[in-house]
Amino acid sequence: MDATKVVESFRPDLTPYEAIYRNLHAHPGLSLQETLAAETAAKHLRALEGFDVRTNIGGTGLIGILKNGEGKTVIVRADTDALPVEELTGLEYASKVREVDVEDQIEKPVMHACGHDMHIASMLATATTLHGCQEHWKGTLVVLFQPNEERAGGAKAMIADGLYDPKKHACPVPDVVLGQHVMPDAAGKVGTRPGLIASAADSFRVTVFGRGGHASQPHRTIDPVVIAAHIIVRLQTVVSREVDPRDSAVVTVGSVQAGMTENIIAAFATIKINIRTVKPATREKVLSAIRRIVKAECEASGSPQEPEWVSTSSFPFTVNDNEATATIGEAFTKHFGDMHNPSSTLLGGSEDFPILATEAPNKQGGKGVPYCYWTFGGTDPTKWKAAEEKGTLEHDVPINHSAYFAPVIQPTLGTGVDAMVVAALSFLK
How many CA atoms lie within 13 A of 228 on its CB side? Predict the structure, then answer.
């Protein structure tokens, strides 16, 4: 039986999974606080006879291992964390949650603004499908739920906590690692891309120092807000004047914080910088330019001390294995037809997913196994088509991390399930 017939015969009724999705969307958890997601996943996997479930890996991470005879080992991964965003979708199941963020101990609104709740729900239905059709595949399936993707810490934490250590969590060594992400494309579509599919990302919290005092006597102070302002403006020239126009890079200052009131010049200012690049050499060049500019602006303003740098996250390049991607692409074309795009656009976002593969032990005694990462659409197809015809996609279709981002439940959920099942079956023969 081919993959399409298996999916059609064994895919469960997705109504309960739609309910799981709504519940997860209404009750999100910030990075390192994904308790409900982990509990939901563990309970579901334990109810499927044969799954060996192991929890609390690198925080709230967990795996479910299903051994089904001799064959390849495939890891399928879903991420579980939400974002500090106040939801504005107006949905009946919109999040109203607020949590104290463990990173800075500040209470924040919380929303699944990147679709990880859809990843969880579709992965649970995937596990059910593959559990039910074991007579049609051989090998070992590992269903992995990873926390803290948004801050690039989850995959590293699971590895550091002994994910593949036979004396600890004993995750079987994979032959391939698979992952997917819902995107603001038309629901029902899937996209693969060999080679580079997602950029690297580096984030920093930079504190620049001045000398505080009364706002009426600026001559007796050194204003860190002015220093920060000059840095922010000058950083806009890194990409426009130092990166080859044929290359690609993004430098974003997403947060500026200084002072408590308007009549006091603060003693320091903090800016948070995010950098995206698609080439290693460009990555180094851009990071060097940013450090140079920050240092120079501080010196030009007479800052009393060196700026303080804290690396808050670092995502690797996501580079799909060509052979694995070709295998999945062929299976997707057969299953999805012209709804599969085998040459999808390079993603602007970044992922820590590759670490689960690059840090896995291999059969040659080293590290690194093949991996493939793809996308599936989450926008109402009718809305997408109308916006496309009007040329208003950028305005009318909310993107990931937007307060308005909420995938239409169907056919998004069904597509996510089909894609992961078909991809897994292309290796579990």
Answer: 26
Same fold, 3-198+317-425 and 200-314: no
CATH architecture for residues 200-314? 2-Layer Sandwich (3.30)
116 is in an annotated binding site: yes
Q: What angle do CA 131, 133, 137 make, to 5 degrees?
A: 100
CATH number of 3-198+317-425: 3.40.630.10
- Please tell me whether 114 is known to bind a ligand: yes
Q: Binning pLDDT at 50, 70 and 90, where does residue 86 land?
A: very high
Give the residue among 247, 243, 212, 216 at the shortest CA–CA distance from 226: 212
Three-state DSSP string of 128-196: HHHHHCHHHCCEEEEEEEECCCCCCCHHHHHHHCCCCCCCCCCCCCCCEEEEEEEEEEECCCEECCCEE
The C-alpha atoms of residue 79 and residue 66 are separated, in whole angstroms, by 19
Q: Where are the domains of the chain?
A: 3-198+317-425, 200-314
Pairing of strands 195-198, 98-100: unpaired
pLDDT per position as a tens digit, 361-407: 998 889 999 999 999 999 999 999 999 999 999 999 999 999 999 99
- Closest by CA to 249, choosing from 231, 261, 237, is 237
Q: Give yes or no for residue 52 having a pLDDT over 90.
A: yes
3-state secondary structure of 285: helix
Q: What percentage of the chain carries pLDDT values higher than 70?
A: 100
Rounded CA separation 161/243 (Å): 38
Q: What is the mean pLDDT of residues 166-186?
A: 97
Residue 260 Ramachandran class (φ > 0 left, ψ -120 to 50 alpha, else beta): alpha
Reduced to 3 states (helix: H, G, I; strand: E, B; else coil), residue 27 is coil
Structure tokens that stand for 101 in this block: 């963020």
